[in-house]
Amino acid sequence: MNLLEMNHIKKSFDGVSVLKDVSLSVKEGQVLSIIGSSGSGKSTLLRCATMLETIDSGEIIYMGEKAAYTDDKGKCVYAPPRELKKIKNYFGLVFQNFNLFPHYSVIKNITDPLINVQKKDKEEAMEIGRKLLEKMGLPDKENAYPFQLSGGQQQRVSIARALALNPAVLFFDEPTSALDPELTGEILKVIKDLAAEKMTMVIVTHEMSFARDVSDYIIFLDKGVIEEEGTPDEVINNPRNERTRAFLSRFEN
Amino acid sequence: MDFTTMLLQLSTGMLESVKIFFFTLIFSLPLGLLICFGRMSKNSLIRNIVKVYISIMRGTPLMLQLLVVYFGPYYLWGANIGGKRFLAIIIGFSINYAAYYAEIYRSGIESMPVGQYEAARLLGYNKIQTFGRIILPQVIKRILPSVTNEVITLVKDTSLAFALAHMELFSMAKQISAAQTTFMPFVIAGVFYYVFNFVVAILMEKAEKKAAYYR
């Protein structure tokens, strides 16, 4: 069964069509990368999948449960709040700008949702938090505040925060774009490690070689349309589409 | 009248000023938040009513508002207003200051990056949790300097209660000065106000330092 299915997604902002009939599916354990130039709609696609934006028409299905669909009259309908709340537990999102809570310590950033949203007791939450910080290579930073960390460390904390809620699929919205070039490596390594553990992930990225290494499947989005999709070998090494080739050639040097 | 008696009498006036100050803060700070929500409401009727309210509160003299609150009920409905002077003063000050605080809260809330809301939403916080746990604590830190300004102004504005002949510090000084033909009470009152504000400034600075553990 597909963890996530997005069918015929359309989305426009103030009459400007950003997504024009985009469909994709994500299987368990799969790593899907979405590439494309800025303005291609890839971030919007991610924001629609995570329900930060509402779609104009189409279908979003998580684990067979419809989060949104288009009725006979062409009107887009979202699931009732209670169902939507449940569906939202299936996914997590790592932001480009981390969006950590600056007034909370590193460990509290991770444990506060566990305690106050998932109603876990404090000790259990602390255990989960510490384990994840260990995994992210930040065991000594639990009492630090986000402003005391480097961008790469902040991003690792935000990954830990998202993982703590145990999502079925984790979305990454250009996770290295806000980082200094020398710090992107540590984030990419974390994501590769997660891929090795068969974590299901959808990654919007500009890092072509990374996308090639980590993904099972790649989608090239251009002007709101999927121009090419397939395995990394097909899309990045042997692109058939003219636009894909033009886009990739800009990354050659 | 000797100096000690004068000081003693002015101290009772000071106590009244302090009372006005504290009651106004206690009521206007939460009321301001409520008005702020109205000002930012999605409902345009509520939003516009609150806009007019804030506009009037900021656009007319506080002294005039105090008179309206005190005498208004009598002229409008012939209501008996005897003995409700202090209540009128607290209401007048609170609704005026709440309008200013509402705008300060709004400036703080609107300065919050949208990413904080989005992160909270993705992590499953509901709206009340998002505001109470994530947004408000950061807003308070951001608005502390502006709040300090208003609080210091409030200390001095308590003197406007003399318009309703309430015997706070300023009225007291004025009365003693007139009766004893001396300028001394005003000098002492000035020192009292200054010391009061000095303490307020120290406390607010402490609050700012306490909130400086993160950036």
From TrEMBL, chain A:
Q: What is its main location?
A: membrane
* Keywords, in A-Z order: Amino-acid transport, ATP-binding, Cell membrane, Membrane, Nucleotide-binding, Transport
Database matches in CDD domains: ABC_HisP_GlnQ (cd03262)
Q: Which Pfam families match?
A: ABC_tran
- MF-aspect GO terms: ABC-type amino acid transporter activity; ATP binding; ATP hydrolysis activity
Q: Which residues form a coiled coil?
A: none
Localization in the cell = Cell membrane
A GO CC term assigned to this protein in UniProt: plasma membrane
Q: Where is the ABC transporter domain?
A: 4-248
Entry membrane topology: Peripheral membrane protein
Quote the InterPro entries the UniProt record gives. AAA+_ATPase, ABC_ATPase_HisP-typ, ABC_transporter-like_ATP-bd, ABC_transporter-like_CS, MetN_ABC_transporter-like, P-loop_NTPase
Membership in a protein family? Belongs to the ABC transporter superfamily.
* Protein name as catalogued: Amino acid ABC transporter ATP-binding protein, PAAT family (TC 3.A.1.3.-)
What species was this sequence derived from?
Answer: Parasporobacterium paucivorans DSM 15970
Taxonomic lineage is: Bacteria, Bacillati, Bacillota, Clostridia, Lachnospirales
TrEMBL record, chain B:
**Does the keyword Cell membrane feature in the UniProt annotation?**
yes
Recorded GO molecular functions are: transmembrane transporter activity
Q: Which biological process terms from the Gene Ontology are attached to this UniProt entry?
A: amino acid transport
Q: What PROSITE patterns does the record point to?
A: ABC_TM1
One GO cellular component term of this record is: ATP-binding cassette (ABC) transporter complex
**Membrane topology, record value:** Multi-pass membrane protein
**Subcellular location(s) per record:** Cell membrane
Q: Cross-referenced InterPro entries, in alphabetical order?
A: AA_ABC_transptr_permease_3TM, ArtM/GltK/GlnP/TcyL/YhdX-like, MetI-like, MetI-like_sf
Give the lineage: Bacteria, Bacillati, Bacillota, Clostridia, Lachnospirales
What Gene3D superfamilies does UniProt report for this protein, alphabetically? MetI-like (1.10.3720.10)
Q: State the name under which the record lists this protein.
A: Polar amino acid transport system permease protein
Q: Which family does it belong to?
A: Belongs to the binding-protein-dependent transport system permease family.
Task: Tell me, in one coarse class, where this protein mainly resides.
Answer: membrane
Organism encoding this protein: Parasporobacterium paucivorans DSM 15970
Q: Where are the transmembrane segments?
A: 20-40, 52-73, 85-102, 182-204
**Record flagged with keyword Transmembrane:** yes
Keywords, ordered alphabetically: Amino-acid transport, Cell membrane, Membrane, Transmembrane, Transmembrane helix, Transport
Q: Which residues form the ABC transmembrane type-1 domain?
A: 14-204
